[in-house]
Amino acid sequence: MTLDQLRYFKAVCQHDNVSLAAEALNISQPSVSNAIANLEKEFGSALFTRQRKRLVLTKEGTLLLEMTEQLLSQADNINRIMREMGSKKQILRLGVPPMIGSLALPVLFTQHFNRYPQLQVHIAEDSNSGLKRLLADNQIDMAFLPHIHSFGSEWCSVPVTELQNVCCVSKTHRLAGRSKICLADLKDEPLVLFKNSFFQTQRILEGFSHISCTPNVLLDTAQLSTVQNVVASNAVVGFMFEFLLKSTPSLVGIPLDPPMSTLVSLVWKKDRHVSESMENLIQFIKETPNGICTASQG
Questions:
Q1: Are 262 and 73 in contact (CB under 8 A)?
Q2: What's the pLDDT score for residue 96?
Q3: Which of 132, 99, 156, 143 is nearest to 272 (CA)?
């Protein structure tokens, strides 16, 4: 068994077809076919069955795929880490959700990253679930993740801050004078929400579901600026973290009743090699009172 054979096997699993896998790998079809045949001969088990011109994993193949993905991810991680050490480069691949990025990144670039001229920072912006997948696949080193529950034993984390979700409307909206508002008050209001994959949106939708209400969502978007602009136009009601209102004076934030707070932590895989750049960021978060939130508002 070789890593190349396992890579070919994974490609066949992804495409359900040897020819398509070979094309994606940019190698000959016989090379892929031989790799699969050699793995089946070595293990003494069929890895695929053919159904209507598609290759379908057997029970043994399914188990091998699960272990293959873990092994290849670890092998790629080892290769990357050793190459970085050999080149003496410091590289940090950091994941951030869009709204939390607008809070964290200005502080990090002005108060932390600029201390390390040799550091190369690669930012990946995605939803909470997307960032977790990138972490699990070793495509990023760390991520700022929103959450309300503790992380599982396979993760390490450092608390960063606690953020308040608020209902936001334009200053001329009829609800602008409210001191607090519950989701039931918004059941007939036209809403703009972030995409369903966003952690905050999932919580909002769960809140509506809890009161057996279907929200009137006119628009969903992945762009913070879109939410800010359409809410400012007085056409819809939205939700965002309270700190974002400081940069959007045309909007008013109304506290939710009951309150809806979100924890934010810096997260990385427990079995992940902690590089010098990762350790430096961990220490910065630990040494910043109340995390990045206070630093950004000071």
A1: no
A2: 95
A3: 156
pLDDT value, residue 69: 84
pLDDT digits 0-9 by tens, 99-134: 888 888 999 999 999 999 888 999 999 888 899 989
In the chain, CATH 3.40.190.10 covers 86-159+264-297
Percent of the chain past pLDDT 70, that is, above it, reads 93
Residues of the chain with CATH 3.40.190.290: 162-262
What pairs with residue 267 in β-bridges?
143, 157
CA distances 297 to 106, 206, 251, Å, are 11, 30, 18
Residues 6+ apart with CB under 8 A from 10: 65, 68, 69, 72
CATH 1.10.10.10 residue ranges for the chain: 3-84
Residue 57 identity: L
Class of domain 162-262: alpha beta
Residue 273: per-residue pLDDT: 82
Question: Residue 294 has which token pair?
Answer: 């206070």
Paired sense of beta strands 90-96 and 142-147, if any: parallel
CATH class of the 86-159+264-297 domain in this structure = alpha beta
* Closest-CA residue to 17 (of 42, 52, 43, 45): 52
Whole-prediction pTM value? 0.70
CA nearest to 200, candidates 151, 167, 226: 167
Residue ranges of the chain with per-residue pLDDT less than 70:
80-81, 83-89, 289-298
